[in-house]
Design goal:
The structure holds two protein chains of two kinds. By secondary structure, chain A is mainly alpha-helical. Chain A is about 70% helix and about 0% strand. Chain B is α+β, with helices and mostly antiparallel strands. Classes of the chains: A mainly alpha, B alpha+beta.
């Protein structure tokens, strides 16, 4: 990553290859639908390419992409088309496709994974984003604050509330 | 069981497959290579934002333009009436200028003609008075003697109009209209009184105010102050009209409102209860004195301005 140029045009394919899974997961965590996540991912990188910005460092680039993914997800959620669609459709699609089941393994573990995922997906969108960035992307509260534009105190409170909501659903899990 | 480890293992499900990533990259590159679509002009956005603003502006302008002010029906009407008045004033001014130019060309004006006529009338009037005065002077009535024929005729005419007695005895003086022209006083006294009364000078003979310097007032300059001349626009205050009381030279009789009264030296006929004419101010002909006259139907009681009792004159 250190060798990648900070100019958006020069390292566009490399940036896509490196950050596309992150952007996809953020979009998926907010929308709960693979197809919508793909659309958001494509929109984010198109905007990245057309903006043609020059970033100070990689953290700056990463924060820009995270912010753009969150904003694009918000725009899609507030659109009339998305609001008139069933809310649990994405989750049902995932279950039908067997994505929650995974490629194999212990049933208990699979069921446990589904329980964790199901519990997280039941959280509000803003709590899901914070949980994902903190627990999956291993970002600190300050990094989450700079990436999302939310104050650190707010990030902490959202994390705390998310944990409180998850504890009843995940009694055997340690936060 | 750690939530972080569990969530990371679960979140792998949310990661895109290789096929999905290739598909997305292809689509992104194709769209990036394609020319950017021209955005349509945001008519809808402009209409949603600008429409209410324009409507508010139109309503405000209409309200300001057509709102009645100061009770008038229309602001436009007020403006038009003011313009009409101004135009009328301009036309009046124009008329004055035009008439002024014509006046300068002709050298005469209607006003001057009227002044000339008035002067002519005045001169006639003065001529009449002068004739009467001359008649008195000729007769020497101021001192003694009878009345000349002209004066007698004038007296008779006066008595006929006022209903007074037509007795033309030698002691009865002629009733004159102007005290300055009355010949009951001597000629010398009349001249002195005329000089003291500061009679107005006729025909532009008067004092004029002149300054040697136009910009700086020179205290050493001789300034002649002219007495205020009555202007045509400002009529002189009308002098109060008093009934005239005319005494005989020896003041043993007097003539008042067409009747002759004989002096009662004892003054025995004064009776307040019979007063029918009370506190009337009369002017003594030949003087500037004003008497207060009271009449009880038979006698005339005279008191001067200082309150001094003059006498009782009984109606003849």
């Amino acid at each position: 990553m250190d060798t990648m140029s900070l100019k958006a045009v020069e390292s566009f394919e490399q940036v896509m290859g490196f950050y596309m899974p992150m952007v996809y997961r953020i979009a998926f965590s907010r929308l709960g639908n693979a197809h919508d996540a793909e659309d958001i991912t494509q929109d984010v990188f198109l905007k990245y390419y057309r903006a043609a910005l020059t970033y100070n460092d990689e953290e700056h680039r990463k924060a820009w992409l995270i912010r753009c993914a969150i904003n694009c997800s918000k725009s899609l959620v507030t659109s009339a088309w998305f609001r008139h669609r069933a809310s649990d459709e994405g989750l049902e699609n995932m279950e039908e496709n067997g994505e929650f089941l995974g490629s194999g393994g212990d049933i208990d573990k699979i069921e446990q994974k589904n329980a964790v995922m199901s519990a997280v997906m039941k959280l509000p969108e803003k709590y899901r984003t914070v949980i994902h960035l903190f627990y999956f992307e291993d970002m600190s509260v300050a990094q989450i604050s700079s990436a999302t534009g939310i104050r650190e105190a707010t990030v902490k409170s959202q994390l705390s509330r998310a944990r409180e909501l998850l504890k009843p659903m995940l009694k055997e899990v340690d936060f | 069981m750690n939530f972080r480890e569990e969530y990371k293992s679960c979140a792998e499900i949310m990661s895109p497959s290789e096929e999905a990533m290739e598909r997305m990259k292809k689509n992104i590159l194709e769209q990036a290579a394609a020319p950017a679509e021209k955005k349509a002009f945001p008519f809808k956005r402009i209409a949603m934002i600008g429409g209410p603003i324009a409507a508010c502006a139109v309503i405000t302008v209409a309200a300001v333009a057509f709102l009645p002010k100061d009770g008038s029906d229309m602001v436009v009407g007020t403006v038009s009436s003011a313009a009409a008045a101004e135009g009328a004033a301009d036309s009046y001014y124009m008329m004055d200028e035009t008439s002024a130019e014509s006046v300068r060309e002709s050298g005469t004006t209607d006003r001057e003609d009227s002044f000339t006529a008035a002067a002519a009338d005045g001169s006639e009037e003065e001529h009449i008075l002068k004739t009467e005065a001359d008649a008195y002077d000729t007769a020497g009535i101021a001192s003694e003697g009878g009345f000349p024929a002209a004066a007698q005729t004038a007296f008779e005419d006066f008595t006929e109009t006022t209903g007074g007695s037509s007795d033309t005895t030698a002691d009865i003086p002629v009733y004159a209209t102007e005290p300055e022209k009355n010949t009951l006083v001597s000629e010398e006294e009349f001249i002195e009184e005329a000089a003291d009364s500061a009679a107005p000078v006729s025909d532009n003979e008067g004092f004029t105010v002149t300054l040697e310097s136009e910009t700086v007032f020179d205290e050493t300059a001789e300034i002649e102050v002219a007495p205020a001349e009555p202007s045509a626009d400002q009529p002189a205050e009308p002098e109060p009209i008093y009934e005239a009381l005319e005494f005989s030279p020896d003041k043993t009789s007097c003539f008042f409102m067409g009747y002759k009264y004989i002096l009662d030296p004892e003054g025995e006929y004064y009776d307040n209860s019979q007063i029918t004419l009370a506190g009337m101010i009369v002017r003594v002909i030949g003087t500037d004195m004003l008497y207060t006259a009271e009449f009880d139907g038979r006698a005339l009681y005279l008191t001067d301005s200082g309150g001094k009792f003059i006498g009782v004159y009984i109606k003849e």
